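Reviewer has doubts. Consider these tokens.
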Amino acid sequence: MNQAKTGRFIAQCRKKKGLTQVRLAEKMGVTNRAVSKWETGKSLPDAALMLPLCECLGITVNELLSGQRLEPDRYSAAAEKNLLTLRQENERQVRLLLDSETWLTALGIAACLLLMVTAGVATLPTPARIALIAVALALILAMSATALRIEQKAGYYECRACGCRWVPSYATVLWAPHMGRMRYLTCPRCGVKSWQRKVITADEPALIASESTRRSRR
């Protein structure tokens, strides 16, 4: 996928529709700076915006990702290539997020320990010691909450019983027993409790479920 080519194509289609960057941004619910980044190839529209953007510009998603109009005989091949590229990019982003969770946790623990040691060893008045300890606790809580949010959002948990890959709620992940990135969860598809491991992709879309789906069936 060539982001610069896609950006030029967005600009071309926008102009053909007689839209300014500001007007297109208003239609998409984003800033004109975001539209400018799309058109200069600095970023791609979010996945949730791709379909509305294509409808607004009168193009297909495959044409958007290919950066050009597609003839019928090239459409299928382009579709497969674009889907593969999007999947690879999604996997890369998920891995980066999970890596950032690891680094964030490590930095949080290190910073907390440094502040606690300083509070215990340094010659400081009692209020200063208390303040350092309070800052250390607040820091570790904030970083832990952020790291947990990253883990919850990035990738999927896989049920050992039926193979369902799903994204639990933040509260569910927070209170679930865990070993590393494995958590003891109840599958929304089969209802079995098991130690579910974190996986990068949803290989089988038919197996993807969510807690909202499970609740709607009750």
User: Anything to note?
Assistant: The chain has three domains: 3-70, 92-153, 156-217. The CA atoms of residues 47 and 204 lie 19 Å apart. The chain is about 65% helix and 10% strand.
